[in-house]
């Protein structure tokens, strides 16, 4: 049965967390680009929406002393992908962000929302995984930090507890300097989810560090540590073996966007291509 | 009821003689020029009021409850909880008084009712609610309890005639007997061939997906009904609503004005129109009922999926000897056209032809005419087969087509065309595309393979009567044009203003168009079938010429010279013999006396003994990545024969729109039905893939053969909407074949599909 929907817009994180705790059927609202379609289709039916966009703290993008960046939960993707620090130190995040929807949509959609929605195809999650991002969370029991690698559990499922509020996403300075590509196959070139997404990044050094992360080919966004280690040891000449490791690591399904077989094969093609282009 | 199979030329209605003598236009001043839309400002500024924007004081909002099942019987409906919901003012079901309205008529019988107790596809109407707000109406739908008895269903037309297939309709799953066409001796034709190709092709079901969803606003004043409708034809809606509600035509006023696209899906009244009217009657309030986007996907028409078998034979020199074509498609759960054979029987010269079209019922949303119904599917099959034939003969695909250009319509009594530009389209298009040079210089770049393809097409309908236009010249020299045609986004109003301006010399900004209103404007058929320009512009021209004739006669009286020596020059009437003898239009006494000069123009009959058709040839360049199966369409050239181009800007826009639609058919668009549930799984913008700006090539060129056709009608223009989309998908498929050496027989050409074919053929890079 339809119910009346309450809309609340607190101005502090603690108020938001307290409100959420007092209302069993509530949802946090940021850009709404995932939540509102889900409500319309009946997949979610919260009785209260707690809009976080009036909380000043969540709108901040802050440069940290370690050379990293903290991105407030309410910062739209459009601001992330054009931020000078992102472009200079974390360009792979900008690459991934640019493939989400379209420019007008990215004025609404947020990094935190993209992460919390936990779609296996989330483009920005791939970059955050590759860049060892940390998710700062507020709850009634206090604040804590969670490695993004521990966050994703399955499609739409995260390690966050009901009522946890992601306040910001931190890109550690230690992960700065990776360059490379986010290659993405989709049914059409604009406004589509990835059928397969492959990030390959490299940071020069002795030895060079590598990053390989995958979207839409497993229940969660996936990082392929084995391929990264192999590339660190052998360099780009090991592109073929790295691709094989990525193929072995992925666990795709067949859906409207493509078959498991096609996806698995494309992981190989794209990882190899991505590595070779950085050789 | 109007025959909605409008692309088949029926008997021409009796028409009045043309109201004015109109020699063909020579050089034109306004017609043909790239004039921006007369309503451009309203459209882009948002001030244009579309039916979806329309609101009346005290208006209720309605919503429709639809079957979640592909095939079921409604055993019981309980509306008691919904009736008590806040804001609910009326609920309609099959049992409501007045709701027992037969619906979906074909071949003299009705196949269903407004609310049928047997629902035959997901989305079939079960009940409707009117409430104070739209949200309340949708909330109330959820409170209606329906008990269904589910039946087995059939989704694939190829399975519909199996002996154990579930029956969609009790009489069987065939919509009439298969339509057969034959000429010559097929066996002898194939025996005489030096090369024969044979293959099966299929196209996926496409959704029209216009920007504005379908819907109506209904308001009663006593026993008079006014409807604001998003429609391609106000008079068709008037006719269907009057029939359904047993009202005199005169009591039903349908107003169209702006509408946000239809592509053939708005050539009829919807159930939504009648439901809105019934709810408005019950509540004595105006009712607005517009479908949601999801409902449009399920229940507002589609281009049916077709499976087509083609066999073609030819001599060494390319002369076709035989064509055998068979097609099976489905009008859906209720009858609609699904035939595709026309092109195979008439596009090329061929003495021996046999074709059969089978149209069957399935448990999915009903088809509606979609931009050149049947033709893009037919081109997908025929034009790929022609390509295969060219390969087998070792001929250039353009040369093969040029070797078979017909001078007459073999399908239509071997009558000659008023003009035929197929050869020009092929030649001009090839030249603009650089067909020979680019093909010769083709190089592969790693896994990226380039390919070039061509396909041709025709559209066999050139408009006709009835159509009537009234032109009024007011005392200040401004002009009002009154016409019933809908402007479905193609620029009808603009082109009509140009037509009138051409004859009266009035600047476009002084011309106002009143249109698409059964209460105040003149009768015209629906805007569809590329027939609006060839049907309505001659009527507009005739009306303007009549006004000019009366004006010049009035001036002749005042200037005391014969009317024959007077002409219109800007705002003046001037003597051709003595330039000193002139009179401002606004000072013509006949105009001043009456305050208005009225001209009534009708569309005369089409020329006897000839056939009017439009032709096109499209050229595509693609890049295929053989490792991923990705296809980029990098260039499209469309060469069109529509005879006179009435407005270069609208013409190009319409052709570009046709190319994008063709790209959708060839590359991305596909209704996906779930075999387990019978439900459409991609009934939304996200999962149903219409090409975006990024998918459309920047390199697009639109050419016009610019033939002079003095016989097609008095505007000399044949129309362009449908032929602009007919060959595009086939040209892309042929380009893909050229790029990678294998053919995708089934649309759309998706990367996974192509990658699998490449892998099977050992052609992966």
Can you describe what's shown?
- The complex is a heterodimer of chains A (about 280) and B (about 775).
- Chain A is of the alpha+beta class and about 280 residues long.
- Chain A has three domains: about 5-50, 2-Layer Sandwich (Uridine Diphospho-n-acetylenolpyruvylglucosamine Reductase, domain 2), CATH 3.30.43; about 55-175, Uridine Diphospho-n-acetylenolpyruvylglucosamine Reductase, domain 3 (2-Layer Sandwich); about 180-275, 2-Layer Sandwich (Enolase-like, domain 1).
- Helix content of chain A is about 35%, strand content about 25%.
- Chain A has helices spanning about 15-20, 35-40, 75-80, 85-90, 90-95, 105, 110-115, 125-130, 225-235, 240-250, 260-275; strands at about 5-10, 25-30, 50, 60-65, 70, 135-140, 140-145, 150-155, 155-160, 165-170, 180-185, 195-205, 210-215, 220-225.
- Chain A has a five-stranded antiparallel sheet with strand order 4-5-10-6-7.
- In chain A, strand 13 and strand 14 form a beta hairpin.
- Chain A is globular, with a radius of gyration of 19 Å.
- In chain A, about 50% of the residues are buried.
- In chain B, about 25% of the residues lie in helices and about 25% in strands.
- A seven-stranded mixed sheet of chain B has the order 3-7-1-14-11-12-13, with helices on both faces. Chain B has a five-stranded mixed sheet with strand order 9-17-16-15-10. Chain B has a four-stranded mixed sheet with strand order 20-28-29-30, sandwiched between helices.
- In chain B, helix 13 packs parallel to helix 14 (about 530-560) and helix 16 (about 650-670) packs across helix 17 (about 730-740).
- Chains A and B meet through helix 11 of A and helix 3 and helix 18 of B.
């Amino acid at each position: 049965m339809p119910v009346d929907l309450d809309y609340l817009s607190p101005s502090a994180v603690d108020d938001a967390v307290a409100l959420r705790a007092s209302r069993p059927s509530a949802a946090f609202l940021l850009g709404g680009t995932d939540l509102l379609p889900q409500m319309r289709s009946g997949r979610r039916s919260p009785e209260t929406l707690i809009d976080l966009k009036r909380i000043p703290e969540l709108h901040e993008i802050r440069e940290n002393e370690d050379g990293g960046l903290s991105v407030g939960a309410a910062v739209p993707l459009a601001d992330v992908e054009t931020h000078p620090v992102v472009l200079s130190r974390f360009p792979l995040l900008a690459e991934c962000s640019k493939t989400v929807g379209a420019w007008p949509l990215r004025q609404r959609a947020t990094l935190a929302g993209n992460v919390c929605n936990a779609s296996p195809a989330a483009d920005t999650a791939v970059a955050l995984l590759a860049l060892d991002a940390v998710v700062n969370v507020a709850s009634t029991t206090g604040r804590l930090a969670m490695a993004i690698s521990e966050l994703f559990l399955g499609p739409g499922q995260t390690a966050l507890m009901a009522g946890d509020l992601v306040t910001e996403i931190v890109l550690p300075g230690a992960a700065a300097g990776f360059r490379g590509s986010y290659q993405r196959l989709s049914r059409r070139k604009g406004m589509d989810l990835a059928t397969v997404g492959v990030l390959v990044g490299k940071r020069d050094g002795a030895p060079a560090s590598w990053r390989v992360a995958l979207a839409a080919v497993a229940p969660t966004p996936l990082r392929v540590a084995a391929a990264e280690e192999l590339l660190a040891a052998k360099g780009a000449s090991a592109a073929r073996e790295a691709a094989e490791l990525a193929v072995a690591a992925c666990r795709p399904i067949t859906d409207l966007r493509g078959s498991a077989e096609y996806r698995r094969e494309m992981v190989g093609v794209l990882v190899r291509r991505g590595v070779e282009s950085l050789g | 009821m109007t025959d909605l199979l409008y692309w088949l030329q029926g008997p021409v209605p009796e028409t009045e003689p043309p109201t004015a003598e109109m020699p063909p236009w020579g050089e034109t001043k306004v017609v043909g020029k790239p004039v921006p839309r007369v309503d451009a400002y309203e459209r882009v500024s948002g001030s244009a009021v579309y039916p979806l924007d329309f609101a009346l004081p005290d208006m209720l909002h309605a919503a429709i409850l639809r079957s979640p099942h592909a095939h079921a019987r409604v055993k019981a409906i309980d509306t008691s909880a919904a009736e008590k919901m806040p804001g609910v003012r009326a609920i309609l079901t099959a049992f409501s008084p007045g709701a027992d309205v037969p619906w979906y008529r074909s071949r003299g019988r009705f196949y269903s009712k407004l609310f049928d107790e047997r629902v035959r596809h997901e989305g079939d109407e079960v009940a409707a609610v009117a409430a104070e707000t739209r949200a309340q109406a949708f909330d109330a739908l959820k409170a209606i309890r329906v008990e269904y008895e589910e039946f087995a269903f059939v989704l694939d037309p190829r399975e519909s005639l199996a002996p154990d297939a579930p029956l969609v309709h009790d009489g069987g799953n065939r919509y009439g007997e298969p339509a057969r066409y034959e000429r010559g001796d097929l066996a002898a034709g194939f025996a005489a061939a030096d090369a024969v190709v044979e293959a099966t092709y299929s196209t996926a079901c496409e959704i029209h997906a216009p920007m504005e969803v379908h819907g109506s606003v209904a308001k009663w004043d006593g026993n008079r009904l006014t409807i604001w409708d998003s429609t391609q034809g106000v008079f068709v809606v008037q006719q269907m609503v009057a029939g359904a509600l047993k009202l005199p035509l005169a009591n039903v006023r349908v107003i169209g004005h702006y509408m946000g696209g239809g592509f053939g899906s708005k050539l009829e009244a919807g159930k939504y129109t009648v439901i809105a009217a019934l709810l408005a009657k019950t509540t004595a309030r105006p009712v607005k009922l517009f479908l949601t986007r999801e409902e449009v996907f399920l229940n507002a028409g589609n281009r049916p999926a077709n499976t087509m078998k083609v066999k073609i034979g030819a001599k060494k020199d390319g002369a076709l000897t035989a064509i055998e074509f068979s097609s099976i498609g489905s009008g859906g759960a209720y009858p609609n056209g699904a035939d595709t054979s026309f092109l195979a029987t008439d596009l090329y010269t061929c003495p021996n032809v046999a074709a059969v079209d089978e149209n069957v019922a399935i448990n999915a949303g009903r088809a509606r005419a979609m931009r050149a119904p049947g033709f893009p599917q037919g081109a997908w099959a025929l034009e790929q087969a022609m390509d295969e034939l060219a390969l087998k003969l070792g001929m250039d695909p353009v040369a093969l087509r040029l070797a078979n250009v017909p001078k007459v319509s073999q399908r239509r009594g071997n009558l000659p065309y008023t003009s035929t530009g197929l050869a020009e389209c092929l030649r001009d298009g090839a030249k603009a595309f650089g067909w020979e040079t680019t093909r010769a210089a083709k190089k592969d770049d790693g896994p990226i393979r380039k390919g070039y393809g061509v396909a041709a097409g025709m559209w066999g309908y050139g408009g006709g009567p009835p159509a009537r236009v009234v032109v009024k010249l007011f005392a200040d020299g401004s002009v009002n044009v009154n016409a019933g045609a809908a402007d479905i986004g193609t620029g009808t109003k603009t082109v009509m203003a140009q037509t009138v301006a051409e004859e009266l010399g009035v600047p476009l900004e002084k011309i106002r168009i009143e249109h698409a209103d059964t209460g105040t404007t003149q009768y015209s058929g629906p805007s569809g079938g590329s027939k609006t320009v060839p049907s309505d512009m001659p009527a507009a021209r005739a009306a303007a010429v009549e006004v000019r004739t009366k004006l010049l006669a009035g001036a002749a009286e005042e200037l005391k010279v014969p009317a024959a020596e007077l002409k219109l020059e800007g705002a003046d009437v001037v003597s051709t013999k003595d330039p000193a003898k002139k009179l401002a239009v606004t000072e013509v006494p006949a105009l001043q006396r009456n305050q208005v000069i009225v001209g009534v123009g009708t569309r005369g009959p089409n020329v006897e003994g000839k056939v009017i058709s439009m032709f096109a040839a499209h050229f595509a360049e693609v890049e295929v990545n053989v490792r991923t199966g990705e296809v980029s369409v990098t260039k499209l050239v469309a060469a069109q024969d529509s005879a006179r181009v009435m407005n270069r800007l609208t013409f190009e826009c319409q052709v570009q729109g046709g190319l994008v639609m063709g790209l959708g058919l060839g590359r991305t668009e596909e209704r996906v039905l779930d075999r387990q549930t019978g439900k459409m799984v991609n009934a939304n913008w996200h999962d149903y893939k219409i090409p975006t700006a990024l998918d459309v090539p920047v390199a697009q060129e639109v050419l016009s053969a610019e033939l002079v056709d003095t016989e097609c009608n008095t505007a000399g223009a044949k129309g362009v909407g449908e032929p602009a989309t007919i060959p595009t998908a086939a040209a892309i498929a042929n380009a893909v074949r050229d790029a990678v050496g294998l053919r995708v027989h089934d649309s759309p050409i998706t990367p996974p599909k192509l990658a699998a074919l490449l892998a099977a053929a050992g052609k992966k890079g």
